[in-house]
Fold this protein.
Amino acid sequence: MFPPAAICEADPVPALTEAPLLDILDPAVQADPEPYYADLRGRTAVARTPLGATIVRRAEVREVLADPRFVTSIPFLVEMQGGGDGWVSEMISSSVISTEGADHTRLRRLVSRSFTPAAAGRHRPTMRALANELVDAFAPTGHCEFVSAFADHYPVQVICEVLGTPREDHDRFARWGNALTYVLSLELGAHLVEIEAAASALGAYIEEMVVDRRDHPRDDLVTSLVQASEDGDRLSSAELFSMVAGIVFAGYDTTRNQLGQALFTFAQHPEQWALLGEQPELAPQAVDEVMRLVGAVSGVPRIALEDVEVDGWLIPAGTVVFASVASANRDESTFVDPLVFDITAVREGHLTFGGGPHYCLGVHLARAEMEEALRILAARLPDLRLEGEPRWRTGTGIAGPDELRLQFRPS
């Protein structure tokens, strides 16, 4: 943990206003932030931004994510954009991603057994079946638009199978997930009406599921969450809604975009794609390398509860602090040849799943989804290459292609 921010006349701590500036609103920075991050990493761990501060070195990013003096900024960002009332507020206020301290520990303790590696592993046969079914539709043609043909469908289908929803409802969950993707972005205000409508419809659906699973338990995640208890403590109705809704909007969009990033990157590194096709046991390392180099989530927003000194800079209480995992994952002090994409490299763990008490609850499910998908795609889409330039998403805070046209040898 960082030392207290004690300031005295004999040894003043430089103010954040004196730190190097990173203008995150500059289109050039948004288009390709890595050169700016690399320059900063050579000089400092902390940069000031128009919105607060950014942490760019791996060691300090890890410290910020673990330090209880930096708390999640999600409730603040939601309220700031007009989402302080209604379904969005209810979904966020009881969510494991926005609670802190004892409340957060309690929620994770109640549901942790539903998110173990073994729990995720039970769904791998279903993941393989769903992936093969989708690939069947385009593998013989030699080309596809990957997002609409695969990435839009596979993650939400997996989530629905895990939750225990009927297949005919998968498209509804995809529509709700598409709307809810803006909840954690700075575009929430512009999409508030559609987000509220999606959250309301999803909330009504979840309420029916919860009532049904209490009366008729099944072998699915919703039943597991309904039955989760410790010393008589159980999730409330609001907490059940927040947990299931969080799985939908966080698990769907991040995995969809991470798959798009993966295929785009592999198409630029055909030798790595061929290697994965020949050695499918490399899939776990391939997932880690993709998420390190081109993670769909670039950083984690926090708020400083009190004045905190980080790398010799004073971050004042109330400052919005962006822990840049994208920069941390390319830190030259930790990673050898950090810009090289190599699925055989043995590296330190990446931070795309976050860190500290808010480390991604669904990490094992997300890893399993990615691993099974990449194994099948590499085996069935040989000689992968790009067919034109992708069209990239904007405004959601989660990076990935909206359109990714690919060519491959028909199989």
Observations:
- The chain is about 50% helix and 10% strand.
- The longest strand covers residues 300-304.
